[in-house]
Amino acid sequence: MIFDELNLLLTNGAKKAGYNENISATFSNLPKASDFQCNDCFALAKKLGKNPFEMAEEIVKNIDKNDNYIFEVARPAFINIKLTDEKLKKLGQEFLLDKRGGVPCHKDKKKVLLDYGGANVAKALHVGHLRSPIIGESLKRLYRFLGDEVIADVHLGDWGLQMGLTELQLFLDGNLDYYFNQGEEKEITLAMLNEAYPKASARKNTDAKFKEEADEWTLKIQKKEEPYYTIYKKIREVSVKEIKKHYSELGAEFDLWFGESDAQDYIDEAIKIIEDKGLSRLSDGALVVDVAIEGENIPIPKTSDDEVQRYKNPMPPAILKKYNGGVLYATTDIATILMRNQMFKDLDRIEYIVDLRQKNHFTQVFRVCKMSGISPEKQELLHIGYGTMNGKDGKPFKTRSGDTIKLEDIIDLLVNRAGEKLKSNGVKYNRSLALAIGVGAMKFGDLINNVDKDYVFDIDKFLSFEGKTGPYLQYTAVRINSILNKTGVTEAKDFAIYNEETKDIIKNILKLNSSYEICYTNKTLSPLCLASYNLASAFSTFYNNVNVINEKDEKKKQSYIALLMLVKKKLCQALDILAIDIPEKM
Ligand code: ARG
Which residue of 29, 31, 41, 384 has the lowest C-beta tally within 10 Å? Predict the structure, then answer.
């Protein structure tokens, strides 16, 4: 990598000048003045009681002569570094021929399990489930690209109260008579589920008896009692079919289609491990584990006697079993970690791409697993919490009537709006084309933000063919493809530099290449989105100023074609990580 080479030159220069210290460079903050800069002389001079400017000059004087970089000192004590044309040419050539386009693969490869998706069976997928498959899929692709072994598990929510609620409602609506020997078999349909769950969910909030009954139904399902369990499996099947359809439209691909229910067989064992370690206690008939550490659970003084106790820094105990023996979300997550560790040996990390608002849940689960040894000491458990997708009013995105928006409706909206764009561009509508553009727009609009930040769903902005958008990147790739098709050339080997625009492109590729590592470290795709946009934008400048097809000088033309191929390769590589498809035309 370029920084290894640069830092070695700088450090050797410092050594020769009598400073036995490692010094290093970063990308320049002023790209007009230089490509890289080294700021280390300030701190070093201070440490050694020297004049920083003089120190920088001494170091630069002692740097080995080379054809690749030009070193200059700038006041107060920066070392500015510029790439020579010779080096830029070498880099272009190297990126063009290297299969990975100059992005190194990690030597220390990790084994990672990624938990994302997390759709709930029997409930319609809604907007709150949009970010997990988008971010999770891209992180998976990024980790794999950098050498990790990654297992993607969708971890369906299929073992909770919603199952009991849905079944009970279906029963009350007369849809389950057959299973209770009272009538003709009726197929359980998606439409029935879409009606049953919201109805039951609303009722449970006002009807305590109904809620209790739903708890009982849930428990019967969890105990695999018949016919409750058979009905459950039918519901699951209908629901999962629909979930698979939506995830596939979003381009999310999973290795495992496990759910909370798959952890059922590990629950007793997990609880035994926890009990044997003396970590659990009974509280009002429920089995709980205290997980709070110092500084948490600080009581806020009550202002009246009948006020409920509140806490400043609450960390309630994790509940493993309810009063009736039923298990909860935390229990299945703990048992799932046990299952994963038995199924896959030596997992270095388990990462959860789940709404930020579940932070406490994961803190509880992780602490129980660490305290009990269910997760080995050296294993990293990580919750990558994402922010909320808001409407233009800054509040969580809702329908006009204030209901949560179904994922299906968002996808339809994106497809329709992308379709309109296609038509206005004179391209014949077809759904897969509109889906690629609509979903691509959504993904880029999401991933360009840091994961933990809220952002605004602005469909006009996302779908614009200009600016920092998915369609702009797609359009750039489509345009390059069309030029390359016109030239008929399929392979290029010789890269040369004829203009400033080309140099700028190579510099942008350098930044793009180093953004992969930044994304990996910070668990975000934002730097990759930005660097890809900058490359596309540098390419646009080149394309506006240079006429590739009509270039008379054959050598020049070939090198332009090589540049096009290189940019195409780099954009495709980035879009593949972002899981954004490149349409045939747009
Ligand atoms: N089903 C959950 C929800 O809708 C998300 C699951 C996330 N993964 C996990 N292991 N808890 O909130």
Answer: 29
CB atoms within 10 A of CB 498: 15
Task: Identify each DSSP E strand in 247-379 by its residue range.
Answer: 280-283, 286-289, 299-300, 310-311, 318-321, 349-355
Write b or e for each residue in 149-162: b if 16 or more Cβ atoms lie within 10 A of its Cβ, otherwise e. ebbbbbbbbbbbbb
Q: In whole angstroms, what is the distance from residue 310 CA to residue 302 CA? A: 8
CB contact at 8 A, 565 and 492: yes
Which atom in ligand 1 lies closest to the alpha carbon of residue 156? 1
Cis amide prior to 52 (ω within 30 degrees): no
Residue identified by tokens 């809604």 is 126
List C-alpha distances in Å: 358 to 333, 364, 384, 550. 12, 10, 10, 58
Express as a percent the part of the chain with pLDDT over 70.
100
Q: Which of 151, 155, 161, 407 to mutate to test the pocket of ligand 1 (most atoms within 8 A of CB)?
A: 155
User: Does ligand 1 have an atom closer than 6 angstroms to the CB of 118?
Assistant: yes
* Model confidence pLDDT, tens digit, residues 367-426: 999 999 999 999 999 999 999 999 888 888 887 777 788 999 999 999 999 999 999 999
Pocket test for ligand 1, best of 115, 336, 358, 368 (most atoms within 8 A of CB): 358
473 CA to centre of ligand 1 in angstroms: 32
Best CA proximity match to 338, nearest among 360, 363, 369: 369
**Residue 354 CB–ligand 1 contact under 6 Å:** yes
Query: What pTM value is reported for the model?
Result: 0.95
Probe ligand 1: pick from 354, 362, 365, max atoms within 8 Å of CB? 354
- Residue written as token pair 């949560």: 404
How far does residue 157's CA lie from ligand 1's centre (Å)? 6
The ranges of the chain with pLDDT < 50 are none
Gap between the Cα atoms of 367 and 369, Å rounded: 5
Residue 253 burial by Cβ neighbours in a 10 Å radius (0-12, 13-18, 19+): middle
Bridge partners (DSSP) listed for residue 381: 350
CA 76, CA 61: separation in Å to the nearest integer? 17
Q: How far apart are CA 171 and CA 158, in angstroms?
A: 19
Provide the residue count of the chain.
586
What is the sign, positive or negative, of the torsion defined by CA atoms of 494, 500, 504, 505? negative
Measured in Å, residue 172 CA sits from the centre of ligand 1 at: 28
Ligand 1 neighbourhood includes 352 CB (under 6 angstroms): yes
Ligand 1 site, residue 333, Cβ cutoff 6 A? yes
Ligand 1 and 330: CB distance under 6 A:
no
